[in-house]
Amino acid sequence: MDPRVSELFGAAAAAQKSGGRKTAKNGSKKFKNRSARYPKASNNPPYLPPEAEEGNIEYKLKLVNPTQCRFEHLATQMKWRLQEGRGEAVYQIGVEDNGLLVGLTEEDMKASLKTLRRMAEKVGADITVLREREVDHNSDEPYRIAEVLVRKVPDDQQFLDLRVAVLGNVDSGKSTLLGVLTQGELDNGRGRARLNLFRHLHEIQTGRTSSISIEILGFDSRGGVVNYSESRTAEEICESASKMITFIDLAGHHKYLKTTIFGLTSYCPDFAMLVVSANTGIAGTTREHLGLAMALKVPIFIVVSKVDLCTKGTVERTVRQLERILKQPGCNKVPMLVSSTDDAVTAAQKFAQSPSITPIFTLSSVSGESLDLLKVFFNILPPLSDSKEQEELMQQLTEFQIDEIYTVPDVGTVVGGTLYSGICREGEQLVVGPTDAGQFRELAVCSIQRNRSGCRVLRAGQAATLALGDFDRSLLRKGMVMVSPEMNPTICWRFEAEIVLLFHAKTFHKGFQVTVHVGNVRQTATVEALQGKDELRTGEKAGVRFKFIKHPEYLKCATFRGLGVSLNTWFGANAVD
User: Fold this and answer.
1) Which of 207, 272, 475, 560 is the most buried (most CB within 10 A)?
2) Are both 216 and 337 inside the same structural domain?
């Protein structure tokens, strides 16, 4: 187990040994203390891990009346921590560098927070006290420590951006939950909140998502929610927000599974939110979506919805179901039930640090129960990549992956997708391809929009739409790339991949035709050869050579987040040639 997980749950394990056998006064085993079964985030150890030189977490014992020279040094240090966290930093006040929780008196704590606020103003940031707690001391006067979030939008960005893919079985409440979060109004119990998310008439009529839709939820520099309840347009949300959560609403029905996989592979989500209905439990495509997210190594957390329709016992039974699945050898996850603001803060921080931890929320989109805990979680959730990784990607040549193609009146052809590497500016000259003949054609980027608002510069990892003017739309298709001419892009008809066959009713062998997903590429391919084997069965791994059937694609000799799908066949693939 990851050492950070052991530190986090050390107190919970001790509680389980000492109090796990205790029952209620009536002696019934059904009333056992559930804290023995779930690792609670509130059971904190009396120390923290030693402070790391890198990263966005800073420990300060106290900040009382620093000299001017010391103050300038502290402000410079805050700039460094903000840069490491891509605009966010967490300060632990009352903690020594070795992680010992010392605590401060009320007077010293007020003075330290005042100094921290001055430091934030110096660098153009805002602070929010996430939580405070007392530390045991042999003194009548209470000693406390405080955890403070410092947020500042980087000078070269409009806002911080995290992408969250929304998974779950059909009718689990995915679109309704997103409607409540982004619109700021609770649902009426009949799906009113989800109507603004649907893109097609048949989705409104059936109440089922069949396409990929994008919704946004903003947070200002002080952690306040910015959504459509106070802003009329997406442009106003982008202007007011310093952090943006971009939700990728995916289909839950099994017949739209390929669309869901395309959303997971091409939109490059940072996290995945699996929505499970409390009254139906783990049903339909829930297991498949969980398996897909794990195969693609997307960190996942779980939301149990519709708790207003069930008894407390039914909700607990659904949570126990999830707990059993998460602890199975194939998952090896550590479930963390979130039931308080303190839990939500700890879950957000530890979730990004360790892939083993899986937070579980229980909420209702009708009554609003525990919705605030999910908002706190999103507000504090840090980005996965650090500033160094971002800089390395930005220094590479431009590569934009095309996921969507539109024709907009008075604008012309527009493509949507993600900038995989480099920097893209208005007016930049790129080449797009490959065509059916394997060629790349020149084009120019006329304008750029992110979350429906104008943007002059696009950086690696950001999703946007690019206007291409009068470029012929018929020459474009999903799966193409727009790259810098200096890259000299090459095409690929055949490639080799190491695959794991997750499930198939029969055997997987030479001559099979499968739909291959590699990044934004989705095309049927034929299995030409298996290395060292004649056939594959469920759970087996092998190197496989594929050949595209219709046209060549642009692939790089690297590890891709990819997945191949055939009828009743799922396998994870890493392209190696």
Assistant:
1) 272
2) yes
d(Cα 320, Cα 362) in Å, to the nearest integer? 12
Total domains in the fold of the chain: 4
Report the pLDDT value the prediction gives residue 210, as an integer from 0 to 100: 65
List, for residues 13-68, the tens digit of each pLDDT value.
333 334 443 333 444 443 344 444 444 444 444 678 899 888 899 999 999 999 99
Three-state DSSP class for residue 516: strand
Domain CATH number, residue 545: 2.40.30.10
Burial (Cβ within 10 Å: 0-12, 13-18, ≥19) of residue 537: exposed
Is residue 360 one of the residues assigned to a domain? yes
- DSSP notation for 267-335: S--SEEEEEEETTT-S-TTHHHHHHHHHHTT--EEEEEE-GGGS-HHHHHHHHHHHHHHHTSTTT--EE
pLDDT tens-digit series, residues 269-290 = 999 999 999 999 998 899 999 9
Q: Among 362, 383, 404, which residue terminates a domain?
A: 383
Query: What's the mean per-residue pLDDT of the chain?
Result: 84
C-alpha to C-alpha distance for 259 and 139, rounded to whole angstroms: 61
DSSP secondary-structure letter at 52?
Answer: P
Helix (H, G, I), strand (E, B) or coil at 38: coil
Peptide bond into 39 cis (omega under 30): no
CATH number of residue 275's parent domain: 3.40.50.300
More confident residue, 507 or 231: 507
Residue range of the domain that includes 399: 388-483
| DSSP designation for 529 | E
> Would you state the pLDDT for residue 200?
61
Look up residue 113 and give its two tokens: 């927070």
How open is the CA angle 228-231-237, to the nearest 5 degrees?
Answer: 90
Residues 261 and 167 in one domain: yes
> Which of residues 338, 367, 383 is at a domain's end?
383
Same domain membership, residue 139 and residue 181: no
